[in-house]
Design brief:
five-stranded antiparallel beta sheet; 136 residues; single chain; alpha+beta
Length: 136
């Protein structure tokens, strides 16, 4: 009878230890997931900041007369300066039309889906930055 109790006690202790190890592993996994979410959000914020600076540059170009090297109320002719098309936060491209520019920023961090990098789209007009759309 004592040996059955001892075996039962050991079995219960064994399962308690396994449960604690499992809980600890789940906490580690949640912490890693939370860290990845925070890294992705920080990368989104940094991309938006970089793109806002680009938007300011392109709006200055738009307003500057052509004789002074500007666009003369057109965005066409502007390009992302080579020294800022890639930063520590990601890479940038622009789709430029006469009256608007759409920037695409691709981050250095994997986004929500766990597969693709963070992406930001920003529309710029002569007097406003109309939208910021995040993808992933």
């Amino acid at each position: 009878m004592k040996s059955i109790r001892a075996i039962s006690f050991l079995a219960i202790m064994f399962f308690c230890v396994i449960a604690q190890i499992t809980n600890a592993q789940e906490k580690v996994n949640r912490t890693e997931q939370q860290q990845q979410i925070e890294k992705a959000q920080a990368n989104r914020d940094a991309l938006i900041s970089d793109m806002t600076n680009l938007a300011s540059l392109v709006q200055q170009y738009y307003r500057k007369p052509t004789v002074l090297g500007g666009g003369g109320n057109r965005f066409t002719g502007w390009f992302i300066p080579e020294e800022v098309d890639t930063t520590a936060n990601g890479m940038f491209s622009a789709m430029i039309a006469k009256d608007s520019v759409v920037f695409v920023g691709t981050g250095n961090v994997i986004g929500k889906d766990g597969k693709n990098r963070v992406r930001i789209f920003m529309s710029v007009y002569p007097n406003i930055i109309k939208s910021v759309i995040t993808r992933n």
